[in-house]
Amino acid sequence: MNSSLLQQVIADQQALIVKKDRGIIRSTNTSMHLKSGLISVITGVRRAGKSTLTLQLADHYPSFHYISFDDERLMNFSVSDFNSMLIEMKKTRDAGTIIMDEIQQVEGWERFVRRIYEEGYKVIITGSNAKLLSSELATHLTGRYLKTELFPFSFAEYLTFKGIDAGDKSSDNEAGILKAFDEYVVNGGFPEYLKENEPEVLRRVYDDIIYRDLIVRFGIRNVSGFKNLTHYLFTNFTCETGYLPLAKLLGFHSPTSVKEYLNMLSEGYLVFEAGKFDFSLKRQYASNRKVYAVDNGLRNAVSFRTSSDIGRLLENMVFLELKRRATDVWYFKSRNNLETDFLINPGNPILIQVCYNMSDPLTRSREINALKACMKELKRDTGLILTNNEMEEVKTPEGTITIMPVWKWALEPVDQWTGRPADKELDEERTSF
Hints:
There is one protein chain. The protein is globular and about 70 Å long. Among the domains are: 3-150, 3-Layer(aba) Sandwich (Rossmann fold); 325-433, no CATH class. 39% of the residues are buried. The model is unreliable at 421-433 (pLDDT under 50). By secondary structure, it is of the alpha/beta class. It has helices at residues 3-19, 31-35, 50-58, 82-92, 109-118, 130-140, 155-162, 171-187, 191-196, 199-218, 223-235, 243-250, 255-267, 281-286, 296-302, 310-324, 361-378, 406-411, 423-432; strands at 39-44, 64-68, 97-101, 122-127, 145-150, 240-241, 271-275, 289-293, 330-333, 339-344, 350-354, 382-387, 392-396, 399-405.
């Protein structure tokens, strides 16, 4: 690259970064990055706050260099330019920390990162493509990095953003929490959208992921088919489906194309798949999938929404919270085809059902009976049903079923259902960060 242009980009970006708002402290295990000299890797969907999180980390070091490759002036940047970049950075200041944002834009980046890490730099990198980063990290940086996946705001983070104290048990404050929860289920947690309250922000994020991160990067030729599949999945999120039915419905030549496109969408953190849990891996791989969107607000901004979607939005929120807690998620069906929405921790299975409202006797019976059947088959004596705002404990011959509101579950510092850190551990994490 032209050295004067490189100097200009570095200077411009550094000037902007100094003034950038550091935002709220995220509820992720970030203190481990500060305690370790290993390469820090922050991955996740576009505009979820990866850059902000890396700057929060960088502020704990005396000085740092920063460059974002999501800059049109760096479109022709190649691996051969890294050394020139490092020289230009050294000219500006002596800093032992280097941040490289959206590094997946540069093919071959991992060799440079390994070199400067071995030279003693603290390296912090971000990226918006799960597979690309994972494969390169595994190939060239095994044992040299710590990785954190960042999602849009959780409900706990949303309350912090809104200035609401989740620990205040007063009735007035709880009313504020409930109001905020109703908003969060619909609006999701993309920070920029919550600040601007403009749906166009979310539509722009969606288009950037579809075009820049996926269509261009993977060289997708069937653009209209890919977009139709994405829109269909967003509209019919949380529903069970298979690659073959999707191929027939949307006019693809084979289910293999659908599978490949779904993998790409997952790599861009736009959707996630949950398979049916089975002790037979062969049957598990052959089962239908359920697809979840990365954010409720993003889904609502680009898909047609009806009043009946509220239950699916609640289920999607629960799925995302489980993913935030670094949990692999499946759904489960008993032999008599009764379904529980989520199964986690397969070595010691935990069953979680989601139902927006259980006041109707038929709905209540259906949800409880389905969970009971799955508990019996897996020999579990506990189960959880998450609702919009109901609290109860139900004793059955199969075991105890706990019914509780999603908002309360999402704010629990520790519980048997997810193994989230205890209060003290969270406090230490936030203090050290």
